[in-house]
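Dear support,

I submitted the protein below through the web form. The confirmation email said the job was done, but the results page showed an empty box. After a refresh the structure appeared. I'm attaching both so you can tell me whether what I see now is the final result or a partial one.
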Amino acid sequence: MKSAIRWILIGLGAVIAVSAGVAMSIPFVIGNLDKQIAAEHGHPFQPATALPLFLGTGGSGCTVDRRSEVFAIRDRIRLVGDAAAGAEPVTIALFSLPNLGNVPGYPVVRRFASTDRCVFVDLPPLPVGWYEASIDFGDPSHDGLITFEVVAAR
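What the results page shows now:
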């Protein structure tokens, strides 16, 4: 009888040890899978700039004083599409992440003069969060998408 109890206790100890090892490794496995999925599908919380877009504060027209992809809620954020728009309509979209909900007032369609060398827009004040902005120039080789963050203070 003592032998049977000893083997049961050894078996339970082994099960507990293996379970603890599995439980400790699960976060590492999930973290690695998250990294792989993010790399394959473009994680919204990793700023990813697709040219020809850039963001910044200050400046005028096609220029900004300081380029960035992280802004404070008090910043006036300027989105610039550094490609000639021509006389074709341009669609500017602004989404909040992760749900890809349109920011009120977006998308907008703007027409720029054929002599303009870029498309630019001052974005509305945005609350803390992650955002994605895009400009559809009508020519897929010039379209752009950029992800950025708005924080309480820098």
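Response: this is the final, complete result; the empty box was a page-load delay. Residues 1-41 form one domain.
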